[in-house]
Design a protein that fits this description.
Layout (H helix, E strand, L loop, with lengths): L26 H10 L7 H7 L3 E7 L18 H8 L2 E7 L4 H10 L3 H4 L22 H7 L3 E6 L15 E4 L8 E7 L2 E10 H14 L6 E6 L20 H23 L6 E7 L25 H4 E2 L1 E4 L8 E8 L2 H10 L15 H4 L10 E5 L2 E6 L2 E4 L4 E3 L8 E2 L7 H17 L15
Amino acid sequence: MSIHQFSHPPQVQGLFPEPSTPSKFPAVVRSLTCLLGLALTLPDAECAIAARPNIIFILADDVGLDDVSCCGSDLHKTPQIDALAASGTRFETCYAAPLCGPSRCALMTGRYAFRTGGITNDSWESGRPGAKAADEYPMARLLKEAGYATCESGKWRQIRETPNAWGFDEYMTDPSDLGWYWKNSFIENGKTVKTDSVMYNPDQIQAYSLDFIRRNTTRPFFLYYAMHLVHRPTMHTPDSPPFDGHKRYDDNIKYMDKQVGELVAELQNLGLRENTLVMFAGDNGTAEGDPSPVHGRMLDGWKGTMLEGGSRVPLIASWPGVTPAGVVSKDIVNFTDMLATFAEIAGRQLPAGFTYDSRSIAPQLRGELGTPREWAFVQASEDWYVREQGWKLNEHDQLYDMSDAPFTEKLIGPGDWTAASEAARDRLHAVLLELNPAAGKIDNGPGGVD
């Protein structure tokens, strides 16, 4: 299978100039040299660059806890993602939105949906309130201002505009908000590219991502790798045997896992692994019809629901030599937290006077305690809840006992109240009063679950 030769935009000059020639020092050596202040002969500009790690955020589509074996999946095996978790930290309680578009908007903006208008998958239709790049100070723009080369690779359409408008120097995407698999076209930096034959688009995304990495070995880069896998339609992969049926879903999981492993291996081959933070997450829960058992039990809910199975997603972080290996953290994480995390790692202060809902987990990535969230906020359409360890309160002021999450949640009825549940309701009610989502942007239009 031939691979399209990608064209590339001119290099964008960041705050720190690129060295005129590639350094002979491996990335990790340059980083340690700069951080320790050793008086070697590296130029100051190169030290400024090398001290900032590369950042790769891999976002898998419709991949829930039950799709990843290190998260407890009984059916699916993901050895490459498991190895990534073993080399770093896995966060057990990370919350996205229960739908693709709102999750991606929260990730890019670092803000809750009632602030941005990214409330449903269809919030970006004409006349509706979906987030606009001009109204936000998004993640890629912050990193670009910190001297990073920035690239978006894969699914994008739901947020609309172009990745360029949101701060990405270059991108490869497509016109679909579903899966984009066996096709003969894609979009590269605003231009539709036709291929001579039908090709497997996840391979094109992978090739573009690896090419971006290879072209940026001497400066820090941010790669937002938004996989189409495993969103429907569930189709055969290049590795699939010739059969139909539900097993094709597992083929897609395996291919996703394989691509994660290939990317990590390439970082290792290029000498970049120790200077690169790699994170892997799902954008929402597994789609209805595809959930499978976790430790012998089914998760409560799936994509599109306001249950644990809708929004609680895998989150793994690996930065060798920095992130503690083999750690499982119970700290609560919101998808909005990635913006502040990456800004801190990049040395970029958040702009004053702009409201974010983002709390950095960079200290936890360094093995420190940090200041973990006490609660997470989740919204889709006119539904929302605030979730702390053990309890959840929704927009109807209904309190749920979450002690058996993610498998069941128990509504606290009139005869079930205790001192602990009353205290939890008071805490979470105060949070919702302060956030006041009902006073924010609203979207009463229809919202699909694709």
